[in-house]
Amino acid sequence: MKKREIVIAGNWKMNKTPFEARVLAEAVRERCENAACKVVICVPFVDLFQAKEGLLGSSKIALGAQNVHWAPSGAFTGEISAEMLLSCGTEYVVIGHSERRQYFGETDESVNRRTLAALQAGLKPIVCVGETEREREEGLTESVIARQVKAALTDVDEAALENLIFAYEPVWAIGTGKTATSEQAEEVCRYLRDLVKELYSDAAADALTIQYGGSMNAKNAAELLSMPDIDGGLIGGASLKPDDFAVIVNAGSEKAARL
Questions:
Q1: Residue 39 host element (H or E)
Q2: Which of 54, 185, 216, 258 supports an S-S bond with 180, CB 3.0-4.6 Å?
């Protein structure tokens, strides 16, 4: 089983034209090329080729997408296959983001099907899980995480976990300016790791990368990443600001150096 990686991934969401994407990717490359942790930028489909160009020559920064379909081809208007993503130089893909669940009908079952397709094709899925504010207030956080994690991992064998990342993103802390305290985030990430230990093994759980994905930014990244079970971040708004993103990457690099 591989050693646990520290991974900082930027989720650009629906932002940047292809020209703007290349400029931003170049800025990220300039600031983060010497990172000691893994760095990923997850961009809109239309930006993949230009973002790849902007990263040209980088050995530290990988390209990611924001969704993938479970079928290799077919009548699925508006979707994109794993093979298509691979042909664009994509290495990672975000699956099951709360915005996909909330606005586009993503379900636990479809998250699993997309995850299996990504893994089979050789993509590395970043699988998002997290509770709403109401679910947290009602004490349902652990049951929600357990349901989502178990569903996502249906038919995923232990060897495939080496290429899978979980991102804990409390829905109430995404794009709201609210952030889970480092203790709250650590508690859920530790629970998630314990779940994987029960489902697979100690070794699989210890090697699993678990990111925090709820409004991590340049000011709070170091504190969040100081927690033992938080192995990186899935960064939204701050990933569109190269200087801020670089601060988060530096915090990730410092954690990677301590491992």
A1: strand 38-42
A2: 185
- What is the per-residue pLDDT for 1? 58
Give the pLDDT score at 176. Answer: 73
CA dist., res. 214 & res. 176, Å (int) = 9
Q: Which of 97, 99, 106, 186 is catalytic?
A: 97
The residues with which 8 forms a beta bridge, in sequence order, are 39, 233
State the average pLDDT for the chain. 96
> Whole-model pTM above 0.85?
yes
pLDDT band (50, 70, 90) for residue 204: very high
User: How far separated are the first and last CA of the chain, in Å rounded?
Assistant: 16
Catalytic residue among 26, 99, 106, 169: 169
Q: How many separate domains does the chain show?
A: 1
Catalytic residue check, 97: yes
Cβ contact 218:248 at 8 Å = yes
3-state secondary structure of 127: strand
CATH number of the domain encompassing residue 174: 3.20.20.70
Q: Where are the alpha helices (DSSP H) in the chain?
A: 18-32, 48-54, 82-87, 98-104, 108-121, 133-137, 141-152, 182-199, 202-207, 221-225, 242-258
Which residue range is the domain that position 177 belongs to? 7-258
- Residue 179: is its pLDDT beyond 80? no
